[in-house]
Design a protein that fits this description.
Elements (H helix, E strand, L loop, with lengths): L4 E3 L7 E3 L8 H11 L8 E8 L6 E7 L2 E2 L1 H4 L6 E10 L8 H10 L21 H20 L21 E6 L4 E8 L2 H18 L15 E2 L3 H35 L10 E5 L1 E8 L2 E8 L20 H8 L25
Parallel strand pairs: 2-3
Antiparallel strand pairs: 1-2, 3-4, 4-12, 5-9, 6-8, 6-10, 7-8, 11-12
Amino acid sequence: MTTYNLLQAEQAKPIKMWTQGVPVDEKAKAQLIKTAQLPFIFQHIAVMPDVHVGKGSTIGSVIPTLGAIIPAAVGVDIGCGMMAVQTSLMAVDLPDNLLALRQEIEKAVPHGLTPRHRGRDQGSWQNPPSVVEQYWQQLLPGFEQLTAKYPRFLNTNNYRHLGTLGTGNHFIEICLDEAERVWIMLHSGSRGIGNAIGTFFIELAKKDMQVHIQNLPDENLAYLREGTEHFEDYVSAVHWAQEFARLNRETMMHNVIAALRKVISKPFNTHLAAVNCHHNYVQKEQHFGAEVFITRKGAVSARTGELGIIPGSMGGAELYCQRFRQCRQFLFLLAWCRKSDEPHRSQKTI
């Protein structure tokens, strides 16, 4: 039984869309077709139920490529993703009034953004705690290698953004699962340094393709070819930014757990189960007998045994809940987020 809709266009690879029963914007379809027309797309593009138009490529898509990467498809929030940790606490262990807990979390994790002309950025550390320094030491060798060739990245928010939340649809949440167990969940990525890396290489790809860019369906699909200097530099930089994003979430989680202990006197354990996954990233994988680059834009890997997260605002549609509950390899934390949250649903892989 076919579980997807097939979108096929002239001179384009097939587009498999797991969107049965879900309306898909025509602009998103047009954007997908443009991507599928690139000569290095491998096998097919996979599309998720929350598909919608994005910059560079369609959000909610999985793009396999041979010998090339599209920096704008990965985007500027490189490694953006989710982390969740199960505690031994139950719902009854939480205080009736959660204001004190919220205030402790807000003190423990810098968040938001202050315009440059208004002084110090409230979304960065003024005096980073020791845990930030400990995690930064894991990133420092790669950062030194990156900035030795591209010193422009020295003048970015890097060390002082490690362990910070950011803005937009990023959030920290204390939530409950169906058994009333308490979880900590958060959503963030590679912060200022990831944005700087993404923006720089997106423009570099466009510059490298100046002669050929008019042949592209969209200039934001400018790509870097494997074997070129800039391709290798981008792969190294993007992998470092993805590691920054992962450790950024770990640092925040460490500080949120500490905040929880300040408010709740009952002793509790953490990391009974934990998930830390990107949903905007690229990496090399084996598919259909070939080694290919997989770019996931608003999607996570879902191989057998892997855990992923659906933010609560994505669990609101009963259709989605019924569909994804059948995938036992997923952990679902159905807790409501702000209405402004951008859809990032854990999804099938190609």
